[in-house]
From TrEMBL:
The lineage of its organism: Eukaryota, Metazoa, Chordata, Craniata, Vertebrata. Its cofactor is thiamine diphosphate. This is Pyruvate dehydrogenase E1 component subunit beta. The pyruvate dehydrogenase complex catalyzes the overall conversion of pyruvate to acetyl-CoA and CO2. It catalyses: N(6)-[(R)-lipoyl]-L-lysyl-[protein] + pyruvate + H(+) = N(6)-[(R)-S(8)-acetyldihydrolipoyl]-L-lysyl-[protein] + CO2. The keyword Nucleotidyltransferase does not apply. InterPro entries: PDHB_mito-type, THDP-binding, Transketo_C/PFOR_II, Transketolase-like_Pyr-bd, Transketolase_C. GO terms for biological process: glucose metabolic process; pyruvate decarboxylation to acetyl-CoA. One of its GO terms (molecular function) is pyruvate dehydrogenase (acetyl-transferring) activity. Residues 33-196 form the Transketolase-like pyrimidine-binding domain. Keywords: Carbohydrate metabolism, Glucose metabolism, Oxidoreductase, Pyruvate, Thiamine pyrophosphate. The keyword Amino-acid biosynthesis does not apply. It comes from Odobenus rosmarus divergens (Pacific walrus). Heterotetramer of two PDHA1 and two PDHB subunits. The heterotetramer interacts with DLAT, and is part of the multimeric pyruvate dehydrogenase complex that contains multiple copies of pyruvate dehydrogenase (E1), dihydrolipoamide acetyltransferase (DLAT, E2) and lipoamide dehydrogenase (DLD, E3). These subunits are bound to an inner core composed of about 48 DLAT and 12 PDHX molecules. Interacts with DLAT.
Length: 223
């Protein structure tokens, strides 16, 4: 109480001076940059780090980009690394996809998101699917080894039963050496042979479900 009473009898200026705390201010630890500057610096770093990296797009070179995202890169890295393209999003997006397939590392700039929709076929078909559509010949040796080990074969796919992957696998096994190791006929679990319905309940029932796979297992094991 003595300390408190002592403060109470002091002038207001002295009391506020005793209670005021002083903090030590330092400069911000992080560098403040805009999104545009951050993208520009990132591309510059990658261009310096890997000679396979290059930038292509509309007005990205001599004009420094429509929104100056590529400012200074053409002067620093030259025509072979910073490439101006015609106004054809579909065209230079395809070039970028092909270059990536050949082992290069392209940065493909679309001026705006709206323009990128002009190249949507290259994005969702060429870029997204080519890898999964070019995995090489079907590895029938691994499938045969599995059949010889388990003595059974069940294929599961979401497509229609006719001309599907499961049909091809079954045909290969029937024609190959693994056929003699089967203890039961091969079983296919596929989608229903109907056009895909839009109602969720009907859609769920038109593609393979867990219960369908369990039924196929019990059927081939005769249990």
């Amino acid at each position: 109480m003595a300390a408190v009473s002592g403060l109470m009898w002091r002038p207001l200026e002295q009391v506020s001076g005793l209670l005021r705390r002083h903090f030590h201010w330092t400069a911000p630890a992080a560098l403040q940059v805009t999104v545009r500057e951050a993208i520009n610096q990132s591309m510059d770093e990658e261009l310096e780090r890997d000679e396979k990296v290059f930038l292509l797009g509309e007005e990205v070179a001599q004009y420094d980009g429509a929104y100056k995202v590529s400012r200074g890169l053409w002067k620093k890295h030259g025509d072979k690394r910073i490439i101006d393209t015609p106004i054809s999003e579909m065209g230079f997006a395809g070039i970028a996809v092909g270059a990536a397939m050949a082992g290069l590392r392209p940065i493909c700039e679309f001026m705006t998101f709206n323009f990128s929709m002009q190249a949507i076929d290259q994005v969702i078909n060429s870029a997204a699917k080519t890898y999964y559509m070019s995995g090489g010949p079907m590895d029938i040796e691994t499938i045969e080894a599995s059949v010889m080990k388990t003595n059974h074969l069940i294929t599961v796919e979401g497509g229609w039963p006719q001309f599907g992957v499961g049909a091809e696998v079954c045909a290969r096994i029937m024609e190959g050496p693994a056929f003699n190791f089967l203890d039961a006929p091969a079983v296919r679990v596929t989608g229903a042979d109907v056009p895909m319905p839009y109602t969720k309940i009907l859609e769920d029932n038109s593609i393979p479900q867990v219960k369908d796979i369990i039924f196929a297992i019990k059927k081939t094991l005769n249990i």
